[in-house]
Amino acid sequence: MKIAVMSCIHGNLAALEAVLKDIEEHSCEQIYCLGDLVGYGPFPNEVVNTIRQLKIPTVQGCWDEDIVEGLNACECSYPSLLAEKRGILAHEWTNNQITPENRQYLSQLPETLKIGNICFVHGSPQSNHEYLLAEMDAFTALERVLASEADVLFCGHTHIPYVRTLDSGQLEVKVSQPDSENNQFLSFTTPLKRIINVGSVGEPRHGRPNATYVIYDTFTEEFELREVAYNYQETCAAIIDVGLPPIFAWRLAKGLEYAEKAEDPTHICER
User: Fold this and answer.
1) For 148-218, where are the alpha helices, taking DSSP H only?
2) How many CA atoms lie within 13 A of 208 on its CB side?
3) What whole-number distance in Å separates Cα of residue 129 and Cα of residue 39?
4) By percentage, how much of the chain surpasses pLDDT 90?
5) Domain annotation covers residue 271
6) Which of 12-21, 104-113, 172-181, 191-200 is predicted with the least confidence, judged by mean pLDDT?
7) What is the pLDDT of residues 82-126, one digit of tens each?
8) Which domain holds residue 247?
9) Is residue 58 part of a domain?
10) Which pairs count as long-range contacts for 69-75, CB under 8 Å and 24+ apart, including other chains?
11) Looking at residue 8, which CATH number applies to its domain?
12) Angle formed by the axes of helices 81-97 and 246-254, to 10°?
């Protein structure tokens, strides 16, 4: 079966509509979404309504969680105090815009979905706030896939698409017993595993404004990273019109994360 997997729409309706059109043109039989329907973008309700109307199976993203639970999760990924303040502004704006029905929908989203040997998460099987970066060491990456009890782990959250294949091999783990000099060594063989990060529909950070998603064939295990051009200027104008920080429009147009990446390297999260 040919499936489409997307993530991190972030209230960008124009990007979502472009991706849905591309998915239809490629005759995908099922769509899955890895969360972050809201946040940063100007059309949170329109995006959630579209996902609901199409009945797309969706896991809860970190922004979806925070809109429901309140901004109580640690966001140490903010590169500066200024960026953190703008993130809080975006949260407050989105929180005031979201309808009770859509808030209820977001609250009921599961943290993981499992279909056969495939697992869908937002960040990682441990937390939708954890980043599975492409440069993560192989043992940690493999542990995350094993934790999902799947062969293929789909994730988002980083906004940068990649595919990482973890070859089968022999692993040896040392288990230390408290108050004992006897260490137990356990070894096991793992089959080939794969992490597929689908990037972001609504706020890409791979250096271009184009939306990204993945088409995956569950029978052949072949995959295609798709990049879809759309009228991002429409979303940029809407960001400014609704009163969100203009820098959100800048970074969407550039396909970058933050303008002031190294502005305050001394910032330490105090939550």
Assistant:
1) none
2) 11
3) 14
4) 66
5) no
6) 172-181
7) 777 888 899 999 999 999 999 999 999 999 999 999 999 999 998
8) 2-254
9) yes
10) 73/129, 74/129, 74/269, 74/271, 75/129, 75/269, 75/271
11) 3.60.21.10
12) 100
Residue 133 in tokens: 């970066």
Retrieve residue 38's tokens: 């809201």
Total domain count, the chain: 1
Give the pairing of strands 183-190 and 169-176. Answer: antiparallel
**Long-range CB contacts (within 8 A, 24+) of 238-245:** 238/42, 238/43, 239/41, 239/42, 241/42, 242/42, 242/93, 243/93, 244/40, 244/42, 244/89, 244/90, 244/93, 245/86, 245/89, 245/90
Is the entire prediction scored with pTM above 0.90?
A: no
pLDDT of 172 over the 60 cut: no
What is the rounded CA–CA span in Å between residue 225 and residue 51? 21
pLDDT in tens, 98-110: 999 999 999 999 9
CA of residue 184 relative to chain centroid, distance: 38
